[in-house]
Amino acid sequence: MSLRWRSELLVRLGAQHCEVCLPQGVVHVVEGTGATAIHAALGALVAQGHTLPRRARVLLGEDLLHLCVVDAEAEQAQTEAQARACAAALLAQVLGGRTDDRQVEVSLLDHGHAWLAAAVDIAALDHALDALMHHGIEARRVGVAVLDDLRAVQAHLPREVHTVALVRERGVSLLGFERGRLVAVEWEHLDWRDRDTLFQRLSAYAGPPAAWPSAASAVRPVAHRGTAAGGRTGFLQPESARQTTALGGAARDTGWVMLPPRLGAGVVGDTGGAR
């Protein structure tokens, strides 16, 4: 870990919450949208006596983005510019034919086989960056949260895995793999506290990405022990220790292997409790 990184603030922004991590590991989470949530989180840290770094790295949550995977080996997407154009065309189909109000960026995935493309609302991003500047903080880097999380969990994954489910506070990101390579990303908006619905939804993605539902409305029966991911093992990463406790039994019963939570215990939220 470089000294430059240690001097940066890490801001993870979702549609309905903001998570701020200081270099020394203090994490504060607040509910709220956009700039309002950023102001609340930074204000709370200052009120607790913390000094804020002058630089920040901003990671955008999946509920703020439209994501797709573009084949880097295809002739029309071999360069970054080609991949961005290809992704914009694909995302336009989802966004009703227009992407002019969204900024499309691409990141080359490990092994160089594909691009992860993300489209973000330009106005929403500008408001978030302005909120940081209001506190004297410059956002040096803006990235995609799921890409950071993918890099963090890949060391735990066997090559034959088909599905990794990243449980968020307001939904689940489904990462689909073929022979160890990411080939699909889907977002399911749901409440993880409703465990029956959560694992019913997960069972719809418990197989090769080619067999995933094209629409999130398709729900299959809950899988039995050991049968997740089409007879192979699926992996599930909770976001917090609280989710680990709540979901661990149901995950074992339906054949999903739990990864360590992205956040440890004792993360302080806007209510003063731990997540």
Overview of this protein structure:
By secondary structure, this protein is an alpha/beta fold. Helices cover 28% and strands 30% of the residues. The strands form three sheets. Strands 8-4-1-2-3-14 form a six-stranded mixed sheet. The longest helix is centred in the first third of the chain and has 15 residues, at 80-94. The chain starts with a helix and ends in a 6-residue tail after the last strand.
Topology:
Blueprint: H1 3-6, E1 8-13, E2 17-21, E3 27-31, H2 34-47, E4 55-60, E5 65-71, H3 80-94, E6 102-108, E7 114-121, H4 122-134, E8 138-144, H5 145-153, E9 163-168, E10 171-178, E11 181-188, H6 195-203, E12 234-237, H7 241-253, E13 256-258, E14 268-269
How many H/I helical runs? Answer: 7
Gap between N and C termini, in Å?
Answer: 26 Å
Q: Biggest β-sheet, characterized?
A: 6 strands, mixed
Low-confidence stretches: 1-5, 215-231, 270-275
User: What portion of the residues fall into strands of 2 or more residues?
Assistant: 25-35%
Beta-strand segment tally: 14
Oligomer: single chain
Mean pLDDT: 85
Q: Globular, elongated, flat, extended or rod-shaped: what is the shape?
A: globular
Share of residues in helices? 25-40%
Instruction: Return Rg in Å.
Output: 19 Å
Structural class comes to: alpha/beta
String of helices and strands: HEEEHEEHEEHEHEEEHEHEE
**Which sequence of strands runs across the widest sheet?**
8-4-1-2-3-14
